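Continuing the batch. This is chain 6 of the set; chains 1 through 5 are on the previous pages. Same settings as before, nothing changed between runs. Recording input and output for traceability.
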Amino acid sequence: MSNTQVTLKTTAGDMTVEFFEDKAPNHVANFVKLASEGFYNGTVFHRTIPGFMIQGGCPDGTGMGGPGWNVDAEFNDTPHTRGVLSMARAQDPNSAGSQFFVCHGDANFLDGQYTAFGRLVSGDDTLDAIANAPTKPGGEGSSPVEPVKIESAEVTTTEA
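Output for chain 6:
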């Protein structure tokens, strides 16, 4: 049995996540694959809403891009609470690809509709810094003035 974590090294600090391989094995495998291939390096958190979530993983920084494939939903009983890692998607439940979000607050209305597949084990201060950064006016007010960049996503695996 192994324990895999990914550390997102950002311009605002580091966040390390562990995964729920038993609840969402395909989402975990997809995220780890993308991280290990450097897909997330240089991407930004393009959508931030304090008290709700921070969203990243779009290769073009707009919220419209992805890796070129989708991962089918793996809804589970994990509640969307602060620090939970979940996959963003379009209206189609099976449209997740590379975009993810980390809950900044409790978002139980997402339970059973989005695939939760991990949680922060460190970097709570970084989550706060990203979520509370100034955003541009207009729309839903969630576009950061100066988006935080993921400099690298580092995968570590230890034997349990």
